Amino acid sequence: MKVLRYEIKDLTPPKEILHAMQAQITAEREKRALIAASEGRKQEQINLAAGAREAAIQKSEGERQAAINQAQGEAAAILAVAEANAQAIEKVGAAIQSAGGMEAVNLKVAEQYVGAFGNIAKTGNTLIVPGNLSDMSSMIASALTLVKGEGGGVIGKS
């Protein structure tokens, strides 16, 4: 007789070996569970750090854009004021050059002179008064010398 093959139908190892095999399987499962939990915590920390980094970047970019917007707004306001002042100066210059312009300047200087005297009298207890207070025209004339340049023109004109 010749045996070509054989088959084991039931194999029952001793209880100690079964217990050792079961302990090894349990240890392997616990090891995999610990590794999976550790990888999960690691990925959580990575995600938290990436989120904090992205939040800091977004915040700084927002603050940067806010500063740029504020600076541009202030620049536009300064430019608008400068343009308005330039237009006002041009209109005053044109008005002075028109008929009756110098008379209007004389009147304005006289009004400001009288107003300045009134303010000095209100605010201070010391008042400097010119020697000849009754000669208002000479005081106004001396104030107008500041307005007129050499040759009778307006200051700044050649």
UniProtKB/TrEMBL annotation:
Alphabetized UniProt keyword annotations: Hydrolase, Protease
Q: Which domain of life is it from?
A: Bacteria
Single annotated GO MF? peptidase activity
Pfam families the UniProt entry points to? Band_7_C
Q: Does the keyword Protease apply?
A: yes
Q: Which GO terms describe its cellular component?
A: membrane
Q: Which SUPFAM superfamilies match?
A: Band 7/SPFH domain
Q: Which GO terms describe its biological process?
A: proteolysis
Residues covered by the STML2-like C-terminal extension domain: 90-148
So what family is this one in?
Belongs to the band 7/mec-2 family.
What name goes with this protein?
Putative stomatin/prohibitin-family membrane protease subunit YbbK
The source organism is: Candidatus Paraburkholderia kirkii UZHbot1
